[in-house]
Every structure is written in C-alpha cells, then in structure tokens.
Amino acid sequence: MKRLILPLVIFMFLISSSSYSQFIPEIKSLNQNYKTEKKDRADLNRISSKQSSIGFNGGVAAIDGKVGYAIGAFAEIKTGGIMFVPQMNYWNQEEQNNFEIDGIGRKYFGKKGAMPYVDGGLGVNFYNTYINSDVNLVKLSIILGAGIEFGKLGSSIVLLVDGKYKLIINDSYDLGNISCFIFTFGFKFPFK
Predict the structure, then answer these.
(1) Which of 144, 146, 125 is nearest to 136 (CA)?
(2) pLDDT of residue 4
(3) Mean pLDDT of the 32-57 span
(4) Burial class (CB in 10 A: 0-12, 13-18, 19+), 53
(5) Of the residues 5, 29, 88, 127, which has the maximum number of CB atoms within 10 A of its CB?
(6) What's the pLDDT at 120?
(7) In sequence order, what DSSP letters do the residues of 137-150 get, joined into one string?
(8) What pLDDT is attached to residue 96?
C-alpha cells in the first residue's frame, strides 16, 4: 500500500501542476484584459470630461465705436474634431442693446496647457436702438472669433479669453449693417 501512495502523490502532483500551467496563459490574459479595461475606463473618463462643458463669460463690447458691456452663457459639445458651441449673449451700450442666440463651430489647436481656438458661426439677434427712434430688429449675424483656453484652475474650472467680431446684417437704409467687437473672459465647467 505504501508503494502505491508515493506514485499516486507524484501522479496527482503532475496532473495538478499540468492543469495549473494550462491556465497560466489564461490568467495572464485575464489580468492583462483587466489592466487594459481599467486604462480604457480612465481614458474614457478623461476624454468625456473634455467633450462637454457649460460656462459663462463677461467683458466689453464695442458697437459701432461705442463701448458697453457684454455677458453670456454657453455650452460646448464635441462633434468629431470640431466643438459645437450654442450660446446666449447680451450686450448693452447706453443707446443700444442686443440679445442673441448663436450657433458656433470651434476648432482647438493643441492638446495641453494654453490651447488657442478659432470660431465661426451664425446668430439670431434681437437688436434695439434708441439713437434716432425706437427701433427693434430681429436679424441674422455672422460671427468670427478666436481665443485661448488655459489649463484647469483647480479640479474642474477652465479659464478662457475670447474675442469675436459680429456683423448684424441689416437691410434697413437708416441703420445699415451693425458691426461689433466683443472681448470677454470666462469660465467653463467640464462634465465628468
């Protein structure tokens, strides 16, 4: 009986080590998949935090050579390599004001730190002036701009500096087209 125990123990050891060695590549593969999946999740979280954000801005508006203030709110939605930026802006100067709803395409250059960008789009304007008479217009505008987005301030706040040229298309002979330059700084809050 003792003679059978030793060969039986050796046989059991060989079978168990053989079966374990067959699973080693699978265990390594599972471990590698887990690490890859964990990295992919981290990358996805990092990317998704840059995909969408909301924010606000404020600054000055120069409307036909007269200076006033400007405030606004916006969202950034990533659509491929270009961001879609819907915004609502209000600017005011003593004799005129405008509320506008814009749709802008934004292209960033760079991936870290201070990232410059360019803008272009269209807006719908609700323009009021009191210069000669009370005039209320609903007109289309063309928007061109550029800016710089700075790195995160803290964990979830991003600073931006922005400049835009807006041309409100007006076919009225007494006013003509209305041009303005708007310079703002703002903060955006990326979604996580």
Answers:
(1) 125
(2) 62
(3) 61
(4) buried
(5) 127
(6) 96
(7) EEEEEEEEEEEEEE
(8) 86
**How far is the C-alpha of 143 from the C-alpha of 164, rounded, in Å?**
7
CA distance 122 to 124: 7
**Predicted local confidence at residue 152, as pLDDT:** 72
Write the burial class of residue 38 (CB in 10 Å: 0-12 exposed, 13-18 middle, 19+ buried).
exposed
Residue 58 contacts residue 186 (beta carbons within 8 Å): yes
How far apart are the C-alpha atoms of 176 and 183, rounded to whole Å?
23
Mean pLDDT of 3-9: 64
How many Å apart are CA 183 and CA 164, to the nearest integer? 7
Under the banding of pLDDT at 50, 70 and 90, the label for residue 133 is low
